[in-house]
Amino acid sequence: MSKSIVTTIGIRKMLEARAGIAPLPCITGFAFGDGAVSDGIIRMPDPDEPYLRNELYRQKIDGFQIMSDTCIRYTCTLAKGTLKGIQINEMALYDADGDLVAIKSFMDKGKDEDIEMAFEIDDIFYKEGSVDG
Predict the structure, then answer these.
(1) Are 58 and 30 within 8 A, CB to CB?
(2) What does the pLDDT look like over 70-109, one tens digit per residue?
(3) Buried b (16+ CB within 10 A) or exposed e, 6-45
(4) pLDDT for 10-41, tens place per residue?
(5) Cα 7 vs. chain centroid, distance in angstroms?
(6) What number of H helices and E strands is found in the chain?
(7) Domain range list for the chain
């Protein structure tokens, strides 16, 4: 089963934007890596470690789709020759500042050199439990 987190830096940026302290940089791309699986076990990303365990490649997003009032789906397609022969098992969304703001770990996905591979990440905000008090 995949594991996803919003990084602490991503949360800080959202809070600062809401308070009017700083503008919120937009999501601009995906980062891909192969360091999230060890001995067949998916390692949970750490919100306080805003990086992939073994980042290999960054690419701009193809686009996004508004799925609902609380969800936007970002897409990215790796071209045929990109990351060929790699077992991809971690990816992240990065913003215009280059910071990883959301990280997802999952089981190995082999990337053949003769196929394109599309990835999606849903950026979701839950209505329940979003304000502590």
Answers:
(1) yes
(2) 999 999 999 999 999 999 999 999 999 999 999 999 999 9
(3) bbebbeebeeeeeeeeeeeeebbbbbbbbebbeeeebeeb
(4) 999 999 999 999 999 999 999 999 999 999 99
(5) 10
(6) 1, 10
(7) 3-124
| Position 33, amino acid | G
**Rounded distance, CA 114 to CA 8, Å?**
37
User: Residue 40: left (phi > 0), alpha (psi -120 to 50), or beta?
Assistant: left
Amino acid sitting at position 85: G
Distance CA 81, CA 101 (A): 27
